[in-house]
Amino acid sequence: MYHSYPTILDSSGELMSPQDWAAFCLTIASLVGSIAIMVRWMVKHYLAELKPNGGSSLKDSVNRLEQRVDDLYTLLLEKHK
After folding, report:
1. Residue 14 C-beta-side C-alpha neighbours within 13 Å
2. Which terminus of the chain has fewer CB atoms gathered within 10 Å of its CB, N or C?
3. pTM exceeds 0.90 for this model
4. DSSP label at 81?
5. Half-sphere exposure (Cβ direction) of 49: Cα atoms closer than 13 Å
């Protein structure tokens, strides 16, 4: 039984040269590196939102809401005594 193994051809139908392979590998490495940098940037900025910074972060907003809920709870308890 005859098996035809796939070959990688360039646009002109010829086998890829070492220079073509080098260009292909560099392209893939550049794309992977770019994606890694974007993910790192996104993670860094999302994590920054979770640290208090004096008023404008998500963590500060949650802390203010928790304090308001605690104050309301305390007022309700005092009112029913």
Report:
1. 6
2. N
3. no
4. -
5. 8
Q: Distance (Å, rounded) from C-alpha 9 to C-alpha 58?
A: 52
First-to-final CA distance of the chain:
91
Q: Which amino acid makes up residue 39?
A: V
Beta bridge partners of 15: 9
Cα(48)–Cα(59) distance, integer angstroms: 9
Q: How far apart are CA 70 and CA 81, in angstroms?
A: 17
Task: Write out the DSSP string of 12-69.
Answer: TSSBPPHHHHHHHHHHHHHHHHHHHHHHHHHHHHHHHHTS--SSSSHHHHHHHHHHHH
Could you state, in order of their start, the residue ranges of all structural domains in the chain? 18-79
pLDDT tens digits, 20-65: 889 999 999 999 999 999 999 999 988 887 787 777 888 888 889 9
